[in-house]
Amino acid sequence: MLYKRFGRTNLQMPVFSCGGMRYQFKWQDVKPEEIPQDKQDNLEATIRRAVELGINHIETARGYGTSEMQLGRILPQFDREKLIVQTKVSPVANAKEFRKTFEKSLAYLKLDYVDLLGLHGINNDETLNHSIRDGGCLEVAKELQAEGKVRFIGFSTHGSTEIITEAINSNQFDYVNLHWYYINQWNWSAIEAANKLDMGVFIISPANKGGLLYQPSQKLVNLCQPLSPMVFNDLFCLSHPQVHTLSIGAAKPSDFDEHLKTLELLDKTEEILPPIIQKLENAAIETLGEEWFKTWDMNLPNWEETPGNINIKVVLWLLNLTLAYDMIEYGKMRYNLLGNGNHWFPGNKADKLNEVNLQNCLVNSPQADKIPQMLAKANEILKDKEVKRLSQS
């Protein structure tokens, strides 16, 4: 395993982390005796495999159902000082509730402290305010830090680059968990802002939200040769020194195997990556047209400023991926979450285009004339049954 300094925490962080949202039994709390033995055995085998590989960063959240409870049966069996344990608790209006929820997490984990506590889901102005206002959840987190129950404090986010950057520039956090990978590089400026303040940078879900890369389309497989799409994406992310660790959301012990192929290639990125990136760009241009490829996202309104709250940027992005790389399963998964994902995936689908007039909000877009028909095309291709966030399933 390779390790990087995790910003101002000075922790030696493995470049892969063991994310805890796919190996648990259920997304809701249950009584301990309701957890089937085979589900517990699988989680324990996954953790043992991670630690055996040197992936000693175990990451979970209060919102991940039985994950913490199940980890509490295995983590105390390891040398505590050799583990980096992170959990996350969502900021709420009542900071006392935040403390109460954290104490529940710690009890489930059966640990005296966590190395990293993330404020989970600083996605909009409200959750940012719940976190950093006087008397807010960040103050409670710092109290927990003073009590020795937390070593370092960060935040996780699915929010806009603007919200993420505002939270980073408060200079109140030691690290950030955020989305950034080949198919979605919108948050690069936030990563740069975090680097300036010597914060740790943890990439959320590069194999799942980064494109369902454990079940890639054949076209994507062909374009990423000689690498698998998963190894290409890992290599792309880790070739940037500003990125410290990628989450592997392992559901079983063998889920680490493909990612590990990345490690021996890290000193060859300048040789390996450019030809693959060129193939991916050429395929997109060939399918979408060069003008659309280069200008589709220029001067788009945000979803709050758009009639019907259509999330134009996300809808067009998903259409582009579907057309250019045959990523239809990924496109459907994300598209049908719109309207159901609240502040974790905000805005609406383009299924009510005939009820709105987008002319005024698109006045600054070079693709104003084409965008309505592309939105209609996206809805035609991607509309499927509604999808809920995993924690709501």
TrEMBL record:
Gene3D superfamilies xrefs: NADP-dependent oxidoreductase domain
Pfam families with a match to the protein in the record: Aldo_ket_red
Origin superkingdom: Bacteria
Domain NADP-dependent oxidoreductase: 36-212
CDD domains the record matches: AKR_Fe-S_oxidoreductase (cd19096)
PANTHER family attached to this UniProt entry: D-THREO-ALDOSE 1-DEHYDROGENASE, OXIDOREDUCTASE
Stated name of the protein: Aldo/keto reductase
